[in-house]
Amino acid sequence: MTAEETPHKFPRVLLEVLIALALLGLGLYGLSLAVPQRPYLGNPAAALAQVPIRVLAAPNVPVIALFMASLAAVVTGAVWFVLRLIHQIFFRPVVARRVWREAIFVAAFVISLAWLQLNEAFSLLFAAALLVGLILLEVFLNIRERDE
Fold first, then answer.
1. pTM here?
2. Mean pLDDT by 10 residues, the chain (148 residues)
3. What is the DSSP letter of 49?
């Protein structure tokens, strides 16, 4: 077989870029639908037990779900490019599973903060504790992968 006859292999990175761009596009489209409808839960809850009742009684639960899912898609797609660049520069060889996992962790962090803000329960102390927890989880997962 000569060089011209060998089949061209579809690069895996290109597939990941297409997935990240699709997430960005779908997320931005979803946000363009959800944000004008103003996902809002009303007055802040006085007690923690009131939160599930307020969420289920809110008339715009589908809008809130669309907003959260779209925000997750946008953040995952956008952060993937930054994390891929960081891994390309500092952590060779690049492990795609680790880059996607970290992008999903960042999206989970952003969604958690958005949810707390919708409930008007956001605090910097809780955000810092959540961030430390996600960082520790990622460190432990990296240690586990290295040992295998």
1. 0.80
2. 59 91 95 81 64 69 88 96 94 89 96 85 89 94 85
3. T
